[in-house]
What does this fold into?
Amino acid sequence: MNLVDRLTADMKTAMKSKDKLALSVIRMMRSEMKYAEISKGNPLTDDEIIDVLSRECKKRRDSIEEYVKADREDVATQLQQEVEIISAYLPEQLSKEEVESIIDKAIKETNVSSIKEMGKLMQAVMPQVKGKADGKLVNQLVKEKLS
It folds into this structure.
């Protein structure tokens, strides 16, 4: 079952069980996917759907940080619940150690040795971790390795 079918089935389940939050989040995700599909002009592949879901998850994570700073725990809690629902449709996330091993391997392959060449290293690493690791984490680990 592809992601679109899974989202549709889960939306029906959420309707039947009257789970308003899950229903709302799934509808938002389907809307974002439809918008991306219209922008592209073709049906989305599973990788492109994962990109859309990852982008939405990242938006919410960033918003959580801002709401916590503004002392709005109620909104931050709801956004965290939304992130958990969206994350269920994303591939399993890589651990910090797995990301570090990918970075180490890329450093050996690209012969990057200074922070000035960080872009070259990121180009080698990001396709391998796309959708499986947070970009902030990857960026932070790459900086640590090159420092």
